[in-house]
Design goal:
With 646 residues, the chain is mainly alpha-helical. It has 18 helices and 14 strands. Among the domains are: 134 residues, no CATH class; 169 residues, no CATH class; 45 residues, no CATH class. The strands form 7 sheets. The protein has a two-stranded antiparallel sheet. It has a two-stranded antiparallel ribbon with strand order 2-3. Helix 5 crosses helix 16 and helix 14 packs across helix 15. The N terminus is likely disordered. It is found in: Cell membrane. Keywords: Antiport, Cell membrane, Glycoprotein, Membrane, Transmembrane, Transmembrane helix, Transport. It catalyses: choline(out) + n H(+)(in) = choline(in) + n H(+)(out).
Length: 646
C-alpha cells in the first residue's frame, strides 16, 4: 500500500522515485536494488534525478573542505540537515540517505544509472571506478553488469516510443493497405475461374524456358573452356576449395550442370505429356471452386468466426494455466542484504516477521515472497493438471479447425450436389452446414481432433525431453530421438491430411469418423495420381496468389512510406523506421490472403472428393446423371471418347 501511495505521489508531483541502496553480492557483481530486499521507506521522491557521481563515504570525508558536496547530496536525503552527522553503518540502519548517487535518467517515474563510454572505457560520471561505501574500490563494469537490464529497458523504451510514433502516423494507411489486400484476395479468388489455366501454363512454360536457357548457358560455358589449360581436371582432382569460382573453371562442372538440367527438362516435359489430362481436370476444378465461392460468398467470412473461437480457446488455456500456477500457498523466505544471516532462505511469515527473533538477529533482513507451493495432495498434482490443461487446449484448437473444415465442406458439397446450379443450391448453405456439424457431427469431429491432439502432445513431450536431456545424451540416444521426432512429424501431417478429407465425407454422407476416414482413404488411393496432381496445382496457384497479394501491397506501401508517390500529398512523412509499418502491412496482407485462400483450398478439396465420388457412383445416364458442371463434363467426355478410340 505504501509503495502504491509513493508512486501516486510521484505521478501527482511530477517527480521521480530515487531508490537508495546499491549492494554487493557474493559474486562481487552489483545490482540496482529497487524494492526486493529493502523496506518500503528506502526511497524518496525527487524533482530531478542525480547528475553527479558521489558516494556517501566520499562526501563524508570531503565535507569539511568542500561543503557544496553535502549541499548537493542532501537533496536526495529524507530529512534535511546542516551537515552529515551519521556514520556509514548508522546510515544503513536508518535509511536516511542513499549510500551512493549516480548520474541517472528518469524512466517510469524512477531514476536509473546512466552509463557512457570514454576512450573505449565504460564510465559513469566520468569515473571508471567508485567506492562502494564499505571501503572497497569497484569498477564501473560491475555496476554496468548490475544495471545492464535496466539500460536495455531504457533503449527498448526509446525504440518503442519511435515505433509507436510511426504507428500513430501510419495507422490510417495501414488499414487502407489491409483493406486493399482483402479486396485483392477476393478478386483473385473470383477471377480464378478465368485465370487459373493461364497462370498455371505460364508458370510451366516459364520453368521449361528457364531450364532450356540453363542448358544452353552451360553448353556455352563448356565450349569456352575447350582447350584452356587445366580445364580438363575433375572436381576430385582439385578437392575442396574455399574459392568456389575455381570449380567454374572446370569443364566437368558445367557438363554436370548441363546433364542435371537436361534430366529435369525431360522429366517436366514427360510429366506434361502423360499427365496433361489430369492437369486439365485440376485446372477445371480450380475454376469450379471459384464459381462455388461466387455462389456462396458468405464462406469467405467464416475465418473470422474461426479466429474468434481460437481466441476463446487460447484465453481459456492461459487463464486456467495462470490460476493453476498461482493456486498454491504463498511461500515467503528470509533474505538478508549481505547474505550473512544464518536464517537466510528459511520460511517466514511477513505479518509477524518484524517481531521475531530472526529480525533482531539479522538487522536489515526481510521476509519476501519466493514462490507458490504447498504440501497437500492437490499441490503435488499441479504439474499434472498443467499437462492436462495443455492437452485440452490442443484438443480444443484442433476441434475448432475441424468444425470449420466440416462446415465449409458441407456448404460446398451442397453446391456440387445441386443438379441444376445455382437453382438447386439450398438457401443459406453455410449456416445450414454449421448447424448440421454442431448438431450431428460433434462426436466425429471431437474424435478426429483427439487423435491429432494426442500426436501433437507426444511431439511436445519429445521436444521437452530433448531440451532437458540435450547435454546428457549419447549419440545413439540423440539419433533415436531424432528419428522419433521425424516419424511423429510425418504422422501428424498424414493424419491432418486424412482428417481433412474424412470431414468432407462426414459432411457429404453424415457417417461416423472411422467409416468416413476409411472411405476417404480408399477413394484417394484409387485415384492417387489425380490426388498428387491436384494437390500440386492447387498449392502452386494459392502460393502464387499469396505472393501476388502481399507483394503488390508491399510495393505500394514501400513507395508510400518512403515518400515516392508524388500524387499523395498528405501521406506519412519523416518516419523513424519506415520498415515497421511496411512489415506490418506485408504480414497483415499475407495473413488476410491466407485466410481467403484457406477457404478456397477447402472448397477445392471438397469439390475434388465430390467429383471422384460422382465419377464412381454415376454413369451419366438418366437414372444416374452426373452432378458435375458442364465444363467438367465436357473434359470427361473428351477423355472417354479418346479412350474408346485407343
Amino acid at each position: 500500500m505504501n509503495k502504491a501511495l509513493l508512486l501516486l505521489e510521484a505521478l501527482a508531483q511530477k517527480c521521480h522515485m530515487l531508490h537508495f541502496y546499491l549492494h554487493a553480492i557474493d559474486t562481487i557483481v552489483l545490482y540496482v536494488h529497487l524494492d526486493a530486499r529493502r523496506k518500503e521507506s528506502s526511497k524518496i521522491c525527487v524533482s530531478k534525478c542525480p547528475e553527479k557521481f558521489l558516494t556517501y563515504m566520499e562526501m563524508y570525508f570531503m565535507y569539511r573542505t568542500r561543503e557544496n558536496y553535502w549541499s548537493y547530496y542532501s537533496q536526495f536525503c529524507k530529512a534535511a540537515s546542516a551537515k552529515p552527522v551519521k556514520a556509514f553503518t548508522q546510515l544503513l540502519l536508518d535509511d536516511d540517505c542513499p549510500t551512493a548517487i549516480f548520474p541517472s535518467r528518469p524512466f517510469l517515474q524512477r531514476c536509473f544509472p546512466d552509463f557512457s563510454t570514454k576512450n573505449g572505457l565504460l564510465t559513469i560520471g566520468n569515473k571508471t571506478t567508485f567506492n562502494d561505501g564499505s571501503g572497497k574500490t569497484r569498477n564501473v563494469v560491475e555496476l554496468r553488469a548490475a544495471a545492464n537490464g535496466v539500460n536495455k529497458i531504457l533503449d527498448a523504451r526509446a525504440i518503442g516510443m519511435k515505433v509507436f510514433e510511426d504507428y500513430a502516423t501510419t495507422w490510417y494507411w495501414i488499414l487502407i493497405g489491409l483493406t486493399i489486400a482483402m479486396l485483392l484476395s477476393w478478386m483473385f479468388v473470383i477471377l480464378l475461374r478465368v485465370t487459373a489455366g493461364f497462370l498455371f501454363w505460364v508458370f510451366i512454360l516459364g520453368v521449361i524456358g528457364i531450364l532450356a536457357y540453363g542448358i544452353w548457358h552451360c553448353y556455352q560455358e563448356y565450349s569456352k573452356l575447350q582447350g584452356k589449360p587445366n580445364s580438363h581436371l575433375s572436381i576430385y582432382n582439385i578437392g575442396i576449395q574455399t574459392d568456389i569460382s575455381m570449380y567454374f573453371q572446370l569443364k566437368q562442372t558445367w557438363f554436370t550442370f548441363m546433364i542435371i538440367l537436361a534430366i529435369l527438362e525431360v522429366i517436366v516435359i514427360v510429366m506434361l505429356i502423360f499427365l496433361r489430362d489430369r492437369i486439365r481436370v485440376s485446372i477445371a476444378l480450380l475454376k469450379e471452386g471459384s464459381k462455388a465461392i461466387g455462389y456462396i460468398p458468405s464462406t469467405l467470412i467464416y475465418p473470422v468466426l474461426t479466429f474468434i473461437f481460437l481466441s476463446i480457446c487460447i484465453s481459456y488455456w492461459a487463464v486456467t494455466a495462470v490460476y493453476l500456477a498461482t493456486s498454491g500457498t504463498p511461500i515467503y523466505k528470509v533474505i538478508a542484504p549481505e547474505g550473512q544471516c544464518e536464517h537466510e532462505n528459511k520460511t517466514c511469515d511477513p505479518e509477524i516477521f518484524n517481531t521475531t527473533e530472526i529480525a533482531k538477529a539479522c538487522p536489515g533482513a526481510h521476509c519476501n515472497f519466493a514462490f507458490y507451493g504447498g504440501k497437500s495432495l492437490y499441490h503435488q498434482y499441479i504439474t499434472t493438471f498443467q499437462i492436462v490443461n495443455l492437452f485440452i487446449f490442443l484438443w480444443l484448437i484442433n476441434f475448432v479447425i475441424a468444425l470449420g473444415q466440416c462446415t465449409l465442406a458441407g456448404a460446398f458439397a451442397s453446391y456440387y450436389w445441386a443438379l441444376k446450379k445455382p437453382d438447386d443450391i439450398p438457401p443459406h448453405p453455410l449456416f445450414t452446414a454449421f448447424g448440421r456439424a454442431i448438431r450431428y457431427h460433434t462426436g466425429s469431429l471431437a474424435f478426429g481432433s483427439l487423435i491429432l491432439a494426442t500426436i501433437q502432445m507426444v511431439r511436445l513431450v519429445l521436444q521437452y525431453l530433448d531440451n532437458r536431456l540435450k547435454d546428457a545424451q549419447s549419440n545413439i540416444s540423440r539419433f533415436l530421438q531424432c528419428c522419433l521426432k521425424c516419424c511423429f512429424w510425418c504422422l501428424e501431417h498424414v493424419v491432418k491430411f486424412l482428417n481433412r478429407h474424412a470431414y468432407v465425407m462426414i459432411a457429404i454422407y453424415g457417417q461416423n469418423f472411422c467409416r468416413s476416414a476409411r472411405d476417404a482413404f480408399n477413394l484417394l488411393m484409387r485415384n492417387v495420381l489425380k490426388v498428387a496432381v491436384m494437390d500440386r496445382v492447387t498449392e502452386f496457384v494459392l502460393t502464387l496468389g499469396k505472393i501476388l497479394v502481399a507483394g503488390c501491397i508491399g510495393i505500394l506501401a514501400f513507395l508510400l512510406f518512403t515518400e515516392r508517390i508524388p500524387m499523395i500529398v498528405e501521406g506519412p512523412t519523416s518516419l523513424n523506421y519506415y520498415w515497421v509499418p511496411l512489415l506490418t502491412v506485408i504480414i497483415g496482407s499475407y495473413l488476410i490472403a491466407h485466410g481467403f485462400f484457406s477457404v478456397y483450398a477447402m472448397c477445392i478439396d471438397t469439390i475434388f472428393i465430390c467429383f471422384l465420388e460422382d465419377l464412381e457412383r454415376n454413369d451419366g445416364s438418366t437414372a444416374r446423371p452426373y452432378y458435375m458442371s458442364q465444363s467438367l463434363l465436357k473434359i470427361m467426355s473428351k477423355q472417354s471418347s479418346q479412350t474408346k478410340k485407343q
